[in-house]
């Protein structure tokens, strides 16, 4: 047993060595995530090393899982290992300690982010290549069979079968963790929901209904616990799944509008910066300092990955985009649901950081311009969008725009003054009122604009010190002010 532990420790050291050598050539997110998992999950260190060595070619620096037949098999083994870790973690957390009496640390979310690198969809690309080539159109069965045996690549049918098996194991892991969400951290649940949003449209209708039911419970639990990250990720996942091939699915989605308003209200504390979920600012591995040119360059790929996983403002924009595309969400929603959404977005644009708020202001202005029935929100009296009753209230955004005209950034002030008259006009382009063309690209420039603002700030004036006489208070003046003080 001791010899096996020593061999395992040696494998872990080899893993660290290989990761460090590879990181010197390319700063990839996958290396960092696998590196974080080695100390926590040493039991599967050999498997992680096999996954890394089989999916990363030294000459091409590929880091995607599923790049070859060997790496697809390794990806399946990694998914099975993650499922075992999740199951063992759940049993350990229920008891508080593992079988050796040690405190259970739980499943780390970095390990789940590795699954987001799975390459699903290569079967369709291979099928399109076979159809477009047409080289074997007139060949007989023997020639086709011989070429298939001599080929170094797999056929589209084999790829599709391997992808189906891999996705099956992935969804088993995802649903197991989602049902045991009370035992795992919010970062882990956010990674699970991001994976469901990416691969969820590949499942059948029965499993999709089960996923939507679990998402409904997860979103409501997150709103009750004031967890905006999990709530927004769950909403984005549900809206993306309903806007895909399952648009004709008949299910209860009346909870989406109320959950959307509640989740957006919880997102305000995280709108102080674009990189809201990061521990450091600026985010690591996203910016590189060039010593020769004395310039700072941004890595587009690393910055995009950081924004997709660690930015609540970007997540809000993704939820808004998915909600408008979803026919069962806000596509044919009532005016009351859209009015509540517009009012909440104007509130976020007013109270968020100015760099984040101007992006929200543009998106909600474009939404309000398209919905002509909601133009009464620009009146001081507002409009009543409800089903009747004493609980109805007038909804207006006039006071939000009035407060935005007093903001310090001149771009926000200029846009807020022009929006009440520009939104009802058909000939005015809302995009011309803002300095940004794309809201996501604008949010990504936060670090660059912050650093560039230092160069435009006036330099402090250094005053030269001059010699001058100073006067001191005399004894007579002190006695006149304080009087005679007796000494006891």
Shape: globular
Into which percentage range does the β-strand content fall? Answer: under 5%
Which stretches of 5+ consecutive residues score pLDDT under 50? 19-47, 49-70
* Average pLDDT: 74
Distance between the termini: 83 Å
Secondary structure: number of strands: 4
Helical fraction: 55-70%
Helical/strand content category: mainly alpha
Q: What sequence of helices (H) and strands (E) makes up the elements?
A: HHHHHHHHHHHHEEHHHHHEEHHHHH
Counting H and I runs of at least 4 residues, what is the number of helices?
Answer: 22
How is this structure best described in words?
With 488 residues, the protein is mainly alpha-helical. Among the domains are: 1-125 and 156-187, no CATH class; 336-384 and 393-444, no CATH class. It has 22 helices and 4 strands. The strands form 2 sheets. It has a two-stranded antiparallel sheet with strand order 1-2. The protein has a two-stranded antiparallel sheet with strand order 3-4. A hairpin with a 4-residue loop joins strand 1 (287-290) and strand 2 (295-298). Helix 3 packs antiparallel against helix 4 and helix 10 (205-224) packs antiparallel against helix 11 (228-242).
């Amino acid at each position: 047993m001791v010899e096996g532990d020593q061999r395992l420790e040696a494998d872990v050291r080899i893993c660290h060595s290989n990761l460090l050598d590879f990181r010197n050539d390319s700063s990839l997110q996958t290396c960092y995530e696998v590196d974080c998992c080695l100390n926590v999950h040493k039991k599967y260190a050999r498997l992680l090393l096999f996954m890394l060595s089989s999916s990363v070619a030294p000459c091409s620096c590929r880091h995607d899982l599923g790049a070859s037949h060997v790496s697809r098999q390794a990806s399946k083994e990694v998914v099975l290992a993650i499922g075992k870790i999740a199951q063992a973690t759940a049993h350990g957390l229920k008891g508080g300690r593992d079988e050796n009496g040690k405190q259970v640390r739980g499943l780390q979310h970095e390990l789940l982010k590795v699954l987001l690198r799975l390459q699903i969809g290569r079967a369709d690309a291979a099928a399109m290549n076979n159809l477009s080539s047409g080289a074997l159109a007139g060949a007989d069965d023997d020639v086709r069979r011989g070429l298939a045996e001599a080929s170094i690549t797999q056929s589209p049918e084999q790829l599709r079968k391997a992808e189906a098996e891999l996705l099956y194991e992935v969804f088993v892991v995802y649903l197991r963790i989602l049902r045991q969400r009370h035992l795992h951290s919010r970062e882990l649940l956010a990674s699970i929901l991001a994976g469901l949003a990416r691969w969820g449209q590949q499942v059948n209708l029965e499993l999709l209904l089960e996923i939507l039911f679990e998402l409904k419970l997860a979103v409501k639990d997150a709103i009750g616990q004031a967890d905006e990250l999990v709530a927004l990720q769950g909403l984005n996942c549900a809206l993306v799944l309903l806007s895909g091939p399952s648009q004709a699915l008949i299910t209860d989605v009346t909870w989406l509008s109320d959950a959307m308003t509640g989740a957006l209200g919880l997102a305000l504390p995280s709108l102080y910066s674009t990189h809201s979920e990061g521990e450091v600012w600026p985010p690591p591995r996203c910016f590189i300092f060039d010593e020769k040119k004395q310039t700072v360059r941004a890595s587009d790929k690393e910055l995009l990955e950081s924004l997709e996983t660690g930015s609540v403002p970007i997540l809000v924009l993704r939820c808004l985009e998915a909600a408008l595309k979803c026919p069962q969400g806000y596509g044919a929603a009532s005016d009351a649901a859209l009015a509540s959404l517009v009012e909440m977005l104007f509130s976020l644009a007013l109270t968020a950081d100015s760099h984040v708020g101007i992006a929200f202001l543009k998106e909600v202005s474009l939404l309000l311009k398209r919905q002509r029935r909601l133009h009464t929100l620009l009146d001081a009296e507002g409009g009543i969008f409800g089903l009747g009753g004493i609980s109805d209230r007038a909804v207006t955004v006039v006071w939000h725009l009035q407060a935005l005209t007093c903001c310090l950034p001149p771009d926000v002030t200029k846009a807020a003054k022009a929006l009440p008259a520009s939104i009802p006009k058909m000939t005015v382009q809302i995009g011309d009122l803002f300095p940004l063309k794309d809201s996501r690209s604008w949010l990504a420039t936060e670090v660059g604009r912050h650093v560039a603002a230092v160069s435009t700030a006036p330099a402090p004036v250094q005053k030269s010190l001059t010699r001058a006489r100073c006067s001191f208070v005399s004894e007579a003046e002190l006695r006149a002010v304080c009087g005679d003080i007796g000494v006891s």
